[in-house]
Amino acid sequence: MALVILDRDGVINEESDDFIRSVDEWVPIPGSVAAIADLSRAGFRVAIATNQSGLGRGLFSADDLQAIHTRLRQMVEERGGSIAGIFFCAHTPDEGCSCRKPATGLLRAIEEALGESASGAAFIGDSLRDLQAARAFGCKAMLVRTGRGRATLAALQSGEARFEAWEALPVFDDLAAAASSILRNR
Fold first, then answer.
1. Catalytic residue from among 9, 64, 126, 130
2. What is the percent of the chain with per-residue pLDDT over 70, rounded to a whole number?
3. Which of 7, 64, 126, 130 is the catalytic position?
4. Beta partners for 4?
5. What is the mean pLDDT of the chain?
6. Catalytic residue at 94?
7. Which of 61, 86, 155, 170 has the fewest CB atoms within 10 Å around its CB?
8. Largest CA distance in the chain
9. Which residues in the chain come in under a pLDDT of 50?
10. How far apart are CA 178 and CA 169, in angstroms?
11. Confidence (pLDDT) at 186
């Protein structure tokens, strides 16, 4: 079964510079939940790899994060799909952990938990650190313009950010468009 890996904030739900702290603040991007369900129903295993330093900073609790993820799973299940796993790093950027993207610890955790290689899997993100983690692990990096995606693309185009061969990077308006491309080209 093929694997698709998604970032969460800015890809599945609206981004917030103040962190998504509760299920009430968690707002899906239009079409994103349906896109996850479409991928799942088509036989893809969908895993989420998300940095959640707000937990480590004490901005929300593990119960708050679990409530958000439970709501996301419920919404996908209501559309006939499923999420194979949600993997998160609660460390702050200065902790130097091996799981916070662009490090690849979350991708190793996905492999271990799901029992399949993430190498070659589509990895859809909106930030340079998503792209870097994908490339470092041998995933197929894909960028969406939602969340921080437009700013990431602008930084790549201007040379402010570096990502080798970024011109060949698949870029989509949103998760729904990226999922449609995956489904068309499988």
1. 9
2. 99
3. 7
4. 46, 122
5. 96
6. no
7. 61
8. 42
9. none
10. 12
11. 86
